[in-house]
Amino acid sequence: CCRPAVLSLADFCLGVPVAGLLCVTCTDMAVMAGNSGETCYSKYGAMSIKAKSCHEMALRIILHSLDLRANCYQRYIVPLLSISADFYIRVFVRVFSGQAKVKASASKQAFVYNCVGCGSFHIQRLGKVAHNGNNITYKAASGPPVGPSCEHCHQRHQLCGPMWAEPLHDADFVQRVLSAVGSNPTRFQTSQRIQGILSMVIEELSDVPLYYTLDNLSKTIHCNSPSLLQFRSSLLHAGYRVSLSHACKSAIKTDAPSSVIWDIMRCWEKLNPVKRERLSENSPAACILSVEPKLQASFTVRADANPNSRKQGLKRFQLNPEPNWGPKARAKAGGGISSSLQERSRLHQNKRKGCAEESDGSHLKNFPCKRFREGNCALGDNCRYSHETEDEQGSATPV
């Protein structure tokens, strides 16, 4: 559905037969990706934040919302496939009944502590399951996993969630779908894209929520970015698992703790030094680089650092079919269509940068004066911007 999915989630969770399949599509990604956390909470029962892994967070938020509403009817969900593509997310889940299984739902949800400075994150489960022989008890989890400030850059944390903390996909189901598509590749026009995305889904670490992005790690300490294979190899050399993510092209999904991630970046900075005298004393980069790495990272590229989907050249991330493709600007109030985004971008490109031949600022007369529109421009004819109304501009004829 194109409207917020939560409008009818409770009815769907109750109406689906036992072991039935439920498919939910959400297109309000601006809300689920952190632009309006309070709206996300009112619709889906979870707080979203702006983070580099916001697309996977959106998937986990909708799964949490589905499971929460299914629990009200002594039901629970089992995700089969969760996809973030283009500007929407889509999840396929099966709905089962069972009071005993519902009791374990709290341990499947988690909050996320996300640092606003360096982007490090920590997972805090809501509950835990304790096994004592044949007896199973459900308890509240212990926490928090972080201190008052980030241990790496000493910045504050943002709290996100609750969200689904269990695997997003059923590997057996995804493999069967992939085999079915491969056996008849001409059945769908998008078979190549389906094969590419599902191949990446199978390669993902199922037990590792969220991910880092390589460009953001480099941006944090203001250094050149290592190649994807170099960074993946350094994690493999250190004895950790690593994978990509279908939700982001530069994603690094790994079971390595954040301390190891930053030790690797410190080692990379020693090979590609930054000008530390230009760093602010309290900046995340200065705080992170002031600590010597405990791990000596190796950036020698390993053969297993390149995933099979990448080796085979599968269509993993489809290019946009046209420039500026995606959701457009909303319609104007009172009717009419908003002006083209491309035209507006071209019109306002470098409007404040005076060219050599237009150093007198005469080119600014092509742009309307905001203060004149508000009725408080006191410069009159001396204003560098245009005081013509929209009607006068529309009626003007070229000479």
Report on this model:
By secondary structure, the protein is α+β, with helices and mostly antiparallel strands. The chain contains 15 helices and eleven strands. The protein has helices at 9-15, 29-32, 37-44, 54-71, 99-103, 171-183, 191-203, 214-221, 228-237, 258-271, 284-289, 308-311, 341-348, 370-374, 390-395, and strands at 20-26, 75-85, 88-97, 109-115, 121-125, 127-132, 135-140, 157-164, 212-213, 242-245, 248-254. Strand 10 and strand 11 (248-254) form a beta hairpin. Helix 1 (9-15) packs across helix 4 and helix 6 packs antiparallel against helix 7 (191-203). The radius of gyration is 26 Å and the shape is globular. The relative contact order is 0.09.
Global shape:
globular
Q: How much strand?
A: 15-25%
Low-confidence stretches: none
Please identify the structural class as seen in this structure.
Answer: alpha+beta
Radius of gyration: 26 Å
Total helical elements: 15
Number of β-strand runs:
11
Mean pLDDT: 86
What series of H and E elements makes up the topology?
HEHHHEEHEEEEEHHEHHEEHHHHHH
How are the strands of the largest sheet arranged? 1-3-2
Strand count, sense and barrel status of the largest sheet are: 3 strands, antiparallel
Determine the N-to-C terminus distance.
51 Å
The percentage helix is 25-40%
